[in-house]
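Q: I'm writing up a methods section and want to include an example of the input and output format. Could you take the sequence below and give the corresponding predicted structure tokens, formatted cleanly so I can copy it straight into the document?
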Amino acid sequence: MHRMMPDPLTQWALASDAMRLASTGCALWLIAGGAAAMEWRRNRLRSLERLERVGWVPWTPIFLMCAMVGGGCLMMGVPAVLGEL
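A: Here is the clean output for your methods example:
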């Protein structure tokens, strides 16, 4: 008999608080990685001629905020998730 897997929204709704916290931490770390990549891209393109084309988004504070909050979420959530396995 084939067992049907619930959709991702149902899995998220039925997940434990620790699993949600760990998932949120992983998502924030992915955002932090994207912000770090965009800051690297902006610094690589930095020249006097292209100064007008450089964006206004503060990538470094976004990276720091997401990395710190995501790390805190992971530190709180992962031990409980690993204990459930």
